[in-house]
Amino acid sequence: MMKKSLLLLSSLILSACSNYQVPESPTFILSGPWAIMPIENNSNTPLAAQKAEQLVATELYAKGISTIQYPAVIGQDLRSILDFGSKQQQANQWLTSQPVEYVITGSVEEWHYKSGLDAEPAVGMTLEVKSARTGEVYWRASGSRSGWGRESVTGTGQIVIEQLLDGLTIAQPSSSD
């Protein structure tokens, strides 16, 4: 009985460290590369969105999805670096010339170490898959996780992204003989 109580308590503690809202996705047919569009950084950590974009690319690759990523912002003025709208506009212009059906984007809400003695990493974000042509959202999921004191923010972010993207249903195109 004591063992069951400890197991239940442990699972309750661990489940309090993460939260995911991952709805069932439609089936996405792998018909070509997906475009990774800018992820909005709503966190207080500079470059958190760019880090998340790279992790998304890696996780999609692991799932067999090839990706292309919007080009880096050419302007180096303060506006082009800090203004998400400007970055998004440039990426949308680039997207019109790309042969992709799906784009993946989202937002980073939290990407930092908590203050305190243990300084646990904390990551929260949303991902969505949209039509490249119409912008219609086909799937959206969000998740957050607090890691343990010795974990890195990037490792925690990778876990969140993996959990979110595990909600995608991917199928190979049917072969017509």
From TrEMBL:
Keyword Signal annotated: yes
Annotated keywords: Signal
Signal peptide, first to last residue: 1-20
Domain of life (superkingdom): Bacteria
Name of the molecule in the record: Penicillin-binding protein activator LpoB
